[in-house]
């Protein structure tokens, strides 16, 4: 069964057509990365899948069921969203934040049960934030805070997790820790991961398949070696690019090329 199926979807916000006639399928258990320049519709696509936008939601299936047929609570039981920025209006502790992931599974006035507390503890252990359980979220570093938000998502026990630039503003070590965590979640719990990223190198390393968006349209979808082709990237991003495979391990390395070095590329 596919995790997500999109057929002929378009989204218009105001006078702007943000997505146009988009069709694609994401397999269950896949690590699927959405790339493209600013304004190409990446975040809009995530918000659409999370049912945060009503426009264009016709033509979307989540695990074989029309997105519009899910109630908010039903969708929250199978889908978790990790946004790019987390607002900290209230000083919740790490434990309290992670336990929020159990909300879709509780009654209106219900309190967490022993089983819910155990799931939160497992999620914190999985993301290596157990030692921070009593700390406030606003006292954590960016990498720690991001792991807590992922722990909250895991605590929902979702089948599908959506992430918008989860490694933005993190140093390389924390980027790898976060993405290794997502890969482990995919492998051990068969969770489907759909991630928006501006980092083409991380997309190449972790994505089973990539979706390249350009001006709200599907430009190409496929394995990284196919999508991250130099002439295609130059056309979509509008700059000179260098795409090389590491001679030792075959990893792709993608870099925009400053004007002073372009003669060496051409």
List the SSEs and their pairings.
Elements: E1 2-13, E2 16-27, E3 31-35, H1 42-49, E4 60-62, E5 65-66, H2 72-78, E6 79-82, H3 94-99, H4 114-126, H5 142-155, E7 160-164, H6 172-189, E8 192-196, H7 200-206, E9 209-214, E10 217-222, H8 224-227, H9 230-237, E11 241-245, E12 252-256, H10 262-265
Parallel strand pairs: 3-8, 3-9, 6-7, 7-8
Antiparallel strand pairs: 1-2, 1-4, 4-5, 9-10, 11-12
Helix pairs in contact: 4-5
Task: Describe it.
The chain is an alpha/beta fold and 266 residues long. The protein is 33% helix and 26% strand. The chain has ten helices and twelve strands. It has helices at residues 42-49, 72-78, 94-99, 114-126, 142-155, 172-189, 200-206, 224-227, 230-237, 262-265; strands spanning 2-13, 16-27, 31-35, 60-62, 65-66, 79-82, 160-164, 192-196, 209-214, 217-222, 241-245, 252-256. It has a six-stranded mixed beta sheet with strand order 6-7-8-3-9-10, with helices on both faces. Strands 2-1-4-5 form a four-stranded antiparallel beta sheet, with helices on one face. α4 (114-126) packs across α5. The radius of gyration is 19 Å and the shape is globular. The mean pLDDT is 90. This is Heme ABC transporter ATP-binding protein.
